[in-house]
Amino acid sequence: VEVKIEVVIPEKERSKEELSPNGKASPLIYKVNGTARHYHLEEHPIASNHYHNPKDMVEASVCHMKDLENGQMREVDLGCGKALLIKESGEFHAVGHKCPHYGAPLVKGVLSKGRVRCPWHGACFNIGTGDIEDFPGLDSLPRFQVKIEKEKVYIRASKQALQSQRRTKMMAKCISLSNYNLSSTNVLIIGAGAAGLVCAETLRQEGFSDRIVMCTMDRHLPYDRPKLRKWLFLQSMDSHAEQIALRPKEFFCTYDIEVLTEMQVAAVDIKSKIAVFKDGFNMEYNKLLIATGNTPKALSCKGKEMENVFNIRTPEDANRVVKLATSKNVVIVGASFLGMEVAAYLAERAHSVSLVELEEVPFKKFFGERVGRAVMKMFESNRVKFYMQTEVSELREQEGKLKEVVLKSGKVLRADVCVVGVGAVPATGFLKQSGINIDSKGFIVVNKMMQTNIPGVFAAGDAVTFPLALRNNKKVNVPHWQMAHMHGRIAALNMLAHGTEISTIPYLWTALFGKSIRYAGHGEGFDDVVIQGDLDELKFVAFYTKSDEVVAVASMNYDPIVSKVAEVLAAGRTIRKRDVENLIFRSFRTGDMSWLTGKGS
């Protein structure tokens, strides 16, 4: 039997690609020297699918039909690139073989019920369409048509598709941007992080052709914020925001998504549907998304405003820290994800790295004491010195620059640079008098459709609490990159009255000394941790349980078990404590994970 794969553009998408109601790129709006300015970039349309040129096609023999069993995936080489061949329920599918997020090999991921989940960060893709269904990441996979002929298997695909390994979904454009008043928009998005951008993109993908305006206090277009502290960004002292941009400038012009930079909203009048900016500018809206994220907590001690004391919030902050810390003494306050990731990166570059933390063990509340101690041991073997169960009482200067960090324990640490990572608070202060429901901690309260208590007002990202299905709809705050993406998508769908409820499984990761800890679920309030593997060797899986139920999982050097567990939880199945205590031993010896899906004994 012969299998062929070729690229096919559905008629619906082809008609969208050919239609350009606006006729030209929309302006980006930037805040320059206090004045909002419009300008047009040259048109460089970012087509969602360029793969229909017959001259661009390649065909190669791959395998026989019997080579793949149901539920199997195979990475196949076509000479000029690779594709992922999948067999499920007796049918063959073919898509790109790399996750568009960070390039993970999807053949090492998890295949379940019509989608494949990335082994690294949990993004999910429909195997029939290639569309992204869960995050992180913005792009979908290229999809190739599969044909079966005779007994040979061929794949026919576009060279460009094989090389790019990503596909931007078709999007609408604004029908007539020139007809709009500058102070009025249909959709206003406050915040230009992952939630805000995904909301804007989803609206366009769903055919929304009215005006969309995003505003941000940042000076940059939306960028990959986790890279500010993870190794991918900090590899270079000369990194710039453009290098970690989520989308290039041309993208916003092509799809008529306007951006106001360095613009801060000071208040929201929900009765008049007006956002009031700090500089006095007002903008009317029909639908509003609040995705302002959080604000880093500052130290409260003497000297906190001193030079060379940083919260890493922007690309400029990250670059300055790297430059100033090289061969110098660094003190990091707070064993948070940010603090630990920065410490791991600077350990090889700074003269010394000291980490100050109020708790007894890093990550104790999140990963548990045993995992926390294993991570702490890894840091200590890499020259990071911990000062636990103490706080900073004073920052001392010499000639206007940081010189010493004084701890409440009486210890004095030499310090040329201080990085503060002691947590954050929701950036919602401007909403206090708005009538929008905010809880005692400052989080915006939303329902499963990301709606606030005010009709037409939605909220998403780090600044919200929402009902998490995994924890019996308990209201939770999940300040993670993947969840912000999903919040933005759900908000957009419900702005269009789709009635879509959020049901995703939280998924996060951290990179430390070249090793990644992956985590899925929501373990807040866990009462026990079942650990399998070897903590000393940093090869383990930790299951976090509440009563008899597994509510979260973390692993190091055991891919793709976290993605596997995430798929089981996403399917609504319950994993019991006894399952991970009694049945996992065989899987660690043999690599068999069938017990998670109920296929094993």
UniProtKB/TrEMBL annotation:
<dbReference type="GO" id="GO:0046872">
    <property type="term" value="F:metal ion binding"/>
</dbReference>
<dbReference type="GO" id="GO:0016651">
    <property type="term" value="F:oxidoreductase activity, acting on NAD(P)H"/>
</dbReference>
<dbReference type="InterPro" id="IPR028202">
    <property type="entry name" value="Reductase_C"/>
</dbReference>
<dbReference type="GO" id="GO:0097194">
    <property type="term" value="P:execution phase of apoptosis"/>
</dbReference>
<keyword id="KW-0249">Electron transport</keyword>
<dbReference type="Pfam" id="PF07992">
    <property type="entry name" value="Pyr_redox_2"/>
</dbReference>
<dbReference type="InterPro" id="IPR016156">
    <property type="entry name" value="FAD/NAD-linked_Rdtase_dimer_sf"/>
</dbReference>
<keyword id="KW-0411">Iron-sulfur</keyword>
<comment type="function">
    <text>Induces apoptosis through a caspase dependent pathway. Reduces mitochondrial membrane potential.</text>
</comment>
<keyword id="KW-0479">Metal-binding</keyword>
<keyword id="KW-0001">2Fe-2S</keyword>
<protein>
    <recommendedName>
        <fullName>Apoptosis-inducing factor 3</fullName>
    </recommendedName>
</protein>
<dbReference type="Pfam" id="PF00355">
    <property type="entry name" value="Rieske"/>
</dbReference>
<dbReference type="InterPro" id="IPR050446">
    <property type="entry name" value="FAD-oxidoreductase/Apoptosis"/>
</dbReference>
<dbReference type="Pfam" id="PF14759">
    <property type="entry name" value="Reductase_C"/>
</dbReference>
<keyword id="KW-0274">FAD</keyword>
<dbReference type="InterPro" id="IPR036922">
    <property type="entry name" value="Rieske_2Fe-2S_sf"/>
</dbReference>
<keyword id="KW-0408">Iron</keyword>
<keyword id="KW-0053">Apoptosis</keyword>
<keyword id="KW-0560">Oxidoreductase</keyword>
<keyword id="KW-0285">Flavoprotein</keyword>
<dbReference type="GO" id="GO:0051537">
    <property type="term" value="F:2 iron, 2 sulfur cluster binding"/>
</dbReference>
<dbReference type="GO" id="GO:0005739">
    <property type="term" value="C:mitochondrion"/>
</dbReference>
<comment type="similarity">
    <text>Belongs to the FAD-dependent oxidoreductase family.</text>
</comment>
<dbReference type="InterPro" id="IPR023753">
    <property type="entry name" value="FAD/NAD-binding_dom"/>
</dbReference>
<dbReference type="InterPro" id="IPR036188">
    <property type="entry name" value="FAD/NAD-bd_sf"/>
</dbReference>
<keyword id="KW-0813">Transport</keyword>
<feature type="domain" description="Rieske">
    <location>
        <begin position="60"/>
        <end position="155"/>
    </location>
</feature>
<keyword id="KW-0496">Mitochondrion</keyword>
<dbReference type="InterPro" id="IPR017941">
    <property type="entry name" value="Rieske_2Fe-2S"/>
</dbReference>
